[in-house]
C-alpha cells in the first residue's frame, strides 16, 4: 500500500480566510476557513456517531489564528471563535481538498434543511 500524500507547503492567507496546502503528489488546495471549521474532525463537531454530530452554523466569517504542527502527521488549527479541538491529519486535509465539492454541497443541504441561511458569499465562489 502506498503512503498517503504529505504536505510540502502550508500557507495561511488570513485576509482572504483561506488555507493553501500543497502536497508531494502535486495536488494543491485552497480551503476556506469556514469549510475547515464546519468539517472539524473534533468530537465536539462530528460527535461520537453521525447521530450525535452537531451542525455548525454562523461560521461564515471565522478565521484561523494559529496553526500548530503536531508531530509529522497533523496540524492543530486554532479558530477565532475559540474552537481548537481536533487534529487535522494529512490524510483528512487531503480528503477535504479532493472532495470539497460534494462535501460543501452536503453542508449547504444540511443547513438549508435546518432552515439556516448563510449570510455571506460562498467561500468557494470567491476562489474562482
Counting helices, strands and paired strands, the structural category is: alpha+beta
Main β sheet profile: 3 strands, antiparallel
CA distance, first residue to last residue: 35 Å
Q: Which residues form runs of ≥5 with pLDDT under 50? A: none
Tertiary shape: globular
Strand order across the largest sheet: 1-2-3
Number of strands: 6
Mean pLDDT: 94
Sequence of secondary-structure elements: EEEHHEEEHHH
Number of helices: 5
Strand content: 25-35%
State the assembly state of the protein chains: single chain
Helix content: 25-40%
- Rg over C-alpha atoms, rounded to the nearest angstrom: 14 Å
Description:
The protein has 128 residues and is an alpha+beta fold. The protein is built from 5 helices and 6 strands; from the N terminus they run E-E-E-H-H-E-E-E-H-H-H. Strands 1-2-3 form a 3-stranded antiparallel β-sheet. Strands 4-5-6 form a 3-stranded antiparallel β-sheet. A hairpin with a 4-residue loop joins strand 2 and strand 3. The radius of gyration is 14 Å and the shape is globular.
Amino acid at each position: 500500500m502506498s503512503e498517503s500524500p504529505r504536505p510540502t507547503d502550508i500557507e495561511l492567507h488570513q485576509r482572504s480566510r483561506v488555507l493553501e496546502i500543497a502536497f508531494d503528489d502535486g495536488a494543491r488546495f485552497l480551503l476556506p476557513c469556514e469549510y475547515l471549521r464546519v468539517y472539524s474532525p473534533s468530537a465536539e463537531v462530528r460527535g461520537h456517531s453521525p447521530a450525535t454530530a452537531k451542525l455548525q452554523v454562523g461560521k461564515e466569517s471565522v478565521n484561523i489564528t494559529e496553526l500548530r504542527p503536531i508531530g509529522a502527521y497533523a496540524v492543530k488549527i486554532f479558530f477565532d471563535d475559540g474552537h481548537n479541538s481536533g487534529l487535522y491529519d494529512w490524510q483528512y486535509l487531503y480528503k477535504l481538498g479532493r472532495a470539497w465539492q460534494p462535501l460543501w454541497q452536503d453542508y449547504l443541504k444540511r443547513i438549508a434543511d435546518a432552515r439556516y441561511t448563510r449570510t455571506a458569499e460562498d467561500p468557494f465562489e470567491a476562489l474562482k
